[in-house]
Design goal:
- By secondary structure, the protein is mainly alpha-helical.
- It folds into 2 domains: 254 residues, no CATH class; 102 residues, abc type-2 transporter like domain (abc type-2 transporter like fold, 3-Layer(aba) Sandwich), CATH 3.40.1710.
- It has 14 helices and 4 strands.
- The protein has a 4-stranded mixed beta sheet, sandwiched between helices.
- Helix 2 packs antiparallel against helix 8, helix 8 runs antiparallel to helix 9 and helix 13 packs antiparallel against helix 14.
């Protein structure tokens, strides 16, 4: 027989054996997942319940009827008209009048109101003269969402009243326009279009990103829980093996069998999180399910490999809770949802680059909220595949390291007579 043909036969045989071993790891890991209630809690209950709970908290999406107090030092027809206009906005509600600023601030300290509008004594006189009037507003900054709604409502009132009280002179306005009763407006008119968040709501803004973070964290937490449990069984075994694992499988067959198990298990939850949850709460979802799955596939792979890498630090089952729960808040801040990444220091940008959810959130929001394609989000997509490759090698190293260390420890105990 030709040596080249023999070599090809051997390669095919080894490949078949490797695939068979990976399949055994896949089946064994599937049984471990279904038989562990703690893992099912994070693999099933967390992705199902957390998005619904978060969205219910943030509904309705905008903060409205914010109570404010008014200090009317003018007490004129014009000042009362201003108060009525402010009270008519959806965001603000005039709760009460205060005799002076001190009384109004006391009401704010008692959380009866969250803002104070002070109308100066010369308000009507300056309006009559065509002069600019300064109307101070004191805002409670304990909640930025509330402050945003207050400032937006006051800006709208300012623009509207500016159009109504704009001085008109015969010299500046054509007679034909005056005769026709044409409405005068501001010299420049701007229209705002909120792409990806047409409701201007907090849930529409934050939930798509939270969904990706939930996918990563629930997957990593479950993988670490399985890994910590496996290391506990290895310490108890006389030979340093895990009785419930396929120990004869090599590190590459092991990590790929496990990762494929987790990825297949998570596909239904990806469809649930990206299609059903947005439909339930009327959140933006302009992309197609195929685009979602293609984009989130490397996210699932990289998160699985990241979890298998972090197993190195899981000395026991409970270690998963400490490490992953501690990193959840850090990953949230690094994702760019609460603070833009371009405004971070170089060190924190580098730290965020190694977190799969960072690239997943940026790309998924563009696809989900703005209808972008994979080609348009190629940077984030390629970054996820690069992270998948990097964490694949680190996971293989950790798998081999744990196996060797466990057997050496078992051999040492046997020689010492323990």
């Amino acid at each position: 027989m030709c040596p080249k043909k023999t070599s090809s036969m051997g390669l095919f045989r080894k490949t078949g054996q490797w695939l068979s071993m990976m399949g055994r790891v896949f089946r064994n890991e599937w049984k471990l997942v279904l038989g562990d209630m703690g893992v099912l809690l994070f693999f099933v209950a967390l992705p199902l319940a957390y998005p619904v709970a978060y969205t219910l908290v943030y509904n309705p999406e905008v903060v409205d009827n914010i109570r404010i107090a008014v200090v009317d030092n003018s007490r004129t027809k014009e000042s009362r008209e201003l108060v009525r206009t402010v009270d008519a906005t959806p965001a603000l509600e005039v709760y009460d009048y205060a005799s002076d600023l001190g009384e109004a601030k006391k009401m704010m300290a008692e959380t009866k109101v969250y803002g104070v509008l002070e109308i100066p004594a010369d308000y009507a006189r300056k309006l009559g003269r065509g002069e600019q009037v300064h109307v101070p507003f004191y805002a409670d900054m304990s909640l930025l969402l509330r402050f945003r709604s207050e400032m937006g409502a006051l800006t709208d009132v300012q623009i509207q009243m500016g159009k109504e009280i704009m001085p008109v002179t015969i010299d500046e306005t054509p007679l034909s326009a005056l005769a026709a009763g044409r409405e005068l407006s501001l010299p420049v008119k701007s229209d705002s279009y909120f792409l990806g968040d047409t409701e201007q709501g907090f849930a529409s803004f934050v939930i798509p990103g939270i969904i990706i973070l939930i996918l990563q964290q629930s997957l990593v937490l479950g993988v670490c829980l399985i890994g910590g449990t496996s290391r506990e069984r290895r310490r108890r075994d006389p030979q340093g093996l895990d009785p419930k694992a396929v120990n004869e499988a090599g590190p590459w067959a092991t990590i790929w069998g496990k990762t494929l198990c987790y990825t297949v298990f998570y596909i239904p939850f990806v469809l649930y999180l990206t299609r059903i949850v947005p439909e339930m709460f009327s959140l933006p979802h302009y992309g197609s399910p195929v685009q979602y799955l293609l984009f989130l596939l490397p996210l699932l792979l990289s998160s699985s490999f990241l979890g298998l890498t972090l197993v190195y630090f899981m000395k026991e089952r409970e270690s998963a809770f400490i490490i992953v729960v501690f990193t959840s808040v850090i990953f949230l801040f690094l994702s760019g949802l609460t603070w833009p990444r371009y405004a971070m220091s170089r060190f924190w940008v580098w730290m965020s680059d190694i977190v799969p959810a960072t690239w997943g959130i940026e790309g998924f929001i563009s696809i989900n909220n703005n209808g972008a394609t994979l080609a348009e989000e190629s940077t984030d997509y390629i970054a996820l595949w690069i992270l998948s490759a990097v964490y694949m090698f680190t996971a293989a190293w950790v798998c081999r390291k744990i196996a060797v260390s466990s057997r050496l420890r078992a051999l040492s105990k046997k020689e010492s007579g323990e």
